[in-house]
Amino acid sequence: MVIYSLLRWWYGEGLLKQLQIGRQRVATTADYFSIALLVKTLFSPFRQISAGNVRGPVGVQLRAWLDRMVSRAVGATIRSFTIIAGLVALGVSFALVGVRVAGWAALPVLPVFGLLLTLGGVMPWTV
Question: Model-level pTM?
């Protein structure tokens, strides 16, 4: 009866709790990188301070336009690398959650599997 209750909790509430922990980890990683916000502002100027609307001769206006374009190119480059790093981190996070949940599901079965291997004559520490 105790083993039945333990296994019922393990594969019921315990497994759901592991899934919730995994979902929270993935959500935290996604929030940390803010990929949706980075995509939305991909071509926004990067930390631009003074190259707003400029009045004056054509040379000054051209210089301000060029400053804005360089700032946008730098911003797009940095945001692109951050998006790629965020996608890699999300992939790793998903993989780790999968390993965690699979390990949680397999853990109660491993002692039985080890006993069966031992009774079958397989002793991995002597190989």
Answer: 0.76
